[in-house]
Amino acid sequence: MVHSEQSVEQSPHPVLGVDGCTDAVEVGRGGFGVVYRAWQPAFSRWVAVKVLAADWHGPSRTRFERELRMLGRLSDHPHIVTLHQAGRTAAGNPYLLMAYEEGGSLSHRLRGGTAGDWREAVAGGITVAGALETAHRSGVLHRDVKPENILISGYGEPKLADFGQARPRSADRTDPRGRITASVLHAAPEVLRGAPASVAADVYALASTVLHWIHGAPAFTPATGESLDSLLRRIAVDPVPDLRAQGVPDGVCAALERAMAKDPALRPATAAEFADELRAAQSAAGVPVTPFVLGGSDTAGPAAGEPGGGAASLSLTDRRRAALALSATAAHQPSGVRPRTLLRSFGLLTALAAVLATGYSQAVPTPAPVELPITVALGELELYAESDEQVVSVRNRDDRPVRVTGVTLTGPSRADLEIVGDGCSPGPVGPGDRCEVRVVAVPRTAGPIRASLELTAAGRSASTTLTGAAQPRRASRDDAPPGPCYADAYQVGASAYGYAGGLKAISVKQYWSPSCRATMAYVWVWKQYRDNVATDGGTWTVGLAIRTERPVSRQRAVGQPYELWTEPHRSAGTCTTASATVTADRTKAATSATTEPYCDR
């Protein structure tokens, strides 16, 4: 019987053929197939669906089943990406359905050579070390720790991902054909020489990733025009960069240098030992010590690899397939390292993408000709307050002009965001040129903000994820007076505005104290109003009240107050509004504003 695979149907929202998943948008691809972000309405959440476009009866099946078993055993760890389910799409493609980590990859955050804060990087390294140690104690070598395979959750937590190259520790022997599977920029020197993968090699890769996180670039970055042979010699001989000049404490530098020693015997024996050295360096530097989280089981269960514990062979039938596999990942390779040079120098396949490619029966869908950031971080926002404008840059990576259409917001928080500027739709975007879409957020509910900015270019969909978190605005932000009711009060409902001469004159807010079960009103007189009225010594009067059936907690300020608070009004079980009027004493012109009711019922 002849078995054939079908590629996933391509449309503005590809139909994945995975029950319960809608609104799929491509977020990544490699030789293995495509990763989609999809919406699960039943759970009100985004998920990542990794769809393989591979020969189900070839080596890809072995690799797929191995990754499934390993993730199934390990994904209960809080810092390993969570696997929800697996199966085959309606078109017959195998898929893994995993948690969608909204922060994107660490690699995306480090793009552009931006150096990171050593405190954040060390804390992240300790966190990932807990995940890596858990995998090791379960009998699994990751074999591909690097920034691309560390994802950042919506809460800023690093998560170790992509076990597509992982192997059981019992299978840590060299390939009989002398082939190497490694990411050159983070692989241990002995692995690049053909030695088997090991715990020490995983520790090296993690330390290399932490150094990259701090330094903004890999320890051994290829120079322009540098040959692969030269790069490999430097990795084998040269010391790692000294980060002390960047203000990194000596203890951190010493821990990284030991973990990246050329001789694996000189490195920490385990990921846990490496984490201990980083934690000691944190303590010595006077920063909070990051918890080291280890999985519940300290012993290895059944073999995580193939039946009988044998190592899987990722055989390639010929050099043509190898070249095709490598070309799918060439976009991740530094410009000075060419795919043909890799094949010629090694006589093997060195893949720099998240997973390896072999031979596939169907081509994966063509990506959109434009490039967007994977995620746009909105940051910490306040309820009912308009955020700063966030600029989403769209680049035409094609060699022809591209027309961008259908710029829209989707996702569970789309009502809290607004497109305030679309510089892409008016005309075609030239080759290599960029256009911008500007977005603001006005969150109306507390908690995570999750939405997508989507657009269409040349008939293909592209998107970026917008993430943030909204918290209530505390009364202290408006210089609340002292007192227990003001101490825990937070704003309820949107601010109300009053206008004079076409400009904002006052803003009125209503605050609620849970401990006192009381409401209070606050008014702010805007500077442009004060400047206009105060000409030639003019003054104004402010009246402020909490209202139920009749005005209560009324306060009146005479002169030139910038802000005013009412006393707390105990309003449990009632609905209240905050109302204010500012009156110019000379002209008697009045401006008023009243909030929407807030009901404590």
TrEMBL record:
Record SMART domains: S_TKc
Enzyme category, top tier: transferase
Chain ranges of the Protein kinase domain: 21-293
GO biological process, one term: carbohydrate metabolic process
Entry keywords, A to Z: ATP-binding, Kinase, Nucleotide-binding, Serine/threonine-protein kinase, Transferase
Protein residues bound to ATP: 50
InterPro entries: Ig-like_fold (IPR013783), Kinase-like_dom_sf (IPR011009), Prot_kinase_dom (IPR000719), Protein_kinase_ATP_BS (IPR017441), Ser/Thr_kinase_AS (IPR008271)
EC number: 2.7.11.1
GO molecular function terms listed in the Swiss-Prot or TrEMBL record: ATP binding; protein serine/threonine kinase activity
Disordered: annotated span: 461-483
One Pfam assignment: Pkinase
The protein's name: non-specific serine/threonine protein kinase
